[in-house]
Amino acid sequence: MTTSAAIAEKKKVDFLPLKGTDYVEFYVGNAKQATHYYQTAFGFEPIAYAGLETGRRDAASYVLQQNKIRLVLTAPLTADSEIAEHHKKHGDGVRVIALEVDDATYAFEETVRRGARPFMPPTVESDEYGQVVRSGIHIYGDTVHIFVERKNYHGVFLPGYRPYRSLIPTIPTGLKYVDHMVGNVGWNEMNIWVRFYEEVMGFQNILSFDDKDISTEYSALMSKVMSNGNGWIKFPINEPARGKKKSQVEEYLDFYNGQGVQHIACATDNIIETVRQLRSRGVDFLSVPSTYYDALLDRVGKIDEDVAALRELGILVDRDDEGYLLQIFTKPVEDRPTLFYEIIQRKGARSFGKGNFKALFEAIEREQMLRGTL
Ligand code: FE2
């Protein structure tokens, strides 16, 4: 095989090589206060800022980082911008899932050629620290992917941002990287977005859960997990399914006013320590009945962790053919019952905790009951 044929073959296998999640941008009502929450409660360090003082007139953005996870919190400064419109419609939520690529122009051209709706043509931004090329496409709801090519840039975040230092120290909680990000889509739309990720982004469907896997006495959902070529980016896609009562996905769609990101799973190497920290700083988690732990070891076999600590903190465990995982879910972090976080520690397992679905969804239903939305 010639070199060019080998390259062509590789592009056929993975025409959109992704180097990781570059950043996740939220549109929020008050970025200054949200930054304080993510810093003090979750341990993200504020590192960069753009706003009135840097010459930006329409919005203020704070960039926060913990290991490989980078969040951007953006709030509108005027009433008539798309940021203000987004916030009015959705409340605080994810606008951008940014993916790092080697070539943002190629990523745009190739995904658009394959059917993506363009959001931002390839755009070069530069300052004294070099240049960044970004481009973007629309995905479900008002959410977008932005491709970031930053190999020629060594500034703090992006051109237009200046370094930012908090007045208080940041104490990390051990969150390492984004393990997966889940999208909630509408009735009968899951397969549309599965095809989108397959055809436009070159992802593969690695796992599927139907309403028999994910249902309780009252409500149900369906989910398919999409993974990119190197397996670093995983996007499960959920849609509601019929049950006796309202699915949690439906509740999300109602309050978010459409499709969007449901949860962000952050990986840790020590879930007991991470969750202890998060709890002590006021992060609110879902809880499962104590009986969950009575049968735990019969279900998952031997694990390294002390079950008493898991029980105390409400951490769930599941095992698959390759190993096991520990996970826990926060309550929604906004007033609207929309986006929440998952904290996950993988010990060999590459699955998503199917054995915990029932206990977990019953916990969510108890919360829905309190909200009057079940
Ligand atoms: Fe998850």
Please characterize this protein's 3D structure:
The protein has 374 residues and is an alpha+beta fold. It has two domains: 11-163, 2,3-Dihydroxybiphenyl 1,2-Dioxygenase, domain 1; 175-371, 2,3-Dihydroxybiphenyl 1,2-Dioxygenase, domain 1 (Roll), CATH 3.10.180.10. It is 27% helix and 34% strand. The chain has eleven helices and 17 strands. It is globular and about 60 Å long. The protein binds fe (ii) ion.
* Biggest pleated sheet: 9 strands, mixed
Mean pLDDT: 94
Task: Give the ordered list of helices and strands.
Answer: HEHEEEHEHEEEEEHEEEHEHHHHEEEH
Can you tell me the CATH class of the largest domain?
A: Alpha Beta
What's the shape? globular
Give the key terms:
single chain, 374 residues, alpha+beta, 2,3-Dihydroxybiphenyl 1,2-Dioxygenase, domain 1, nine-stranded mixed β-sheet, 11 helices, binds fe (ii) ion
Task: Give the structure's gist in a few sentences.
The chain is an alpha+beta fold.
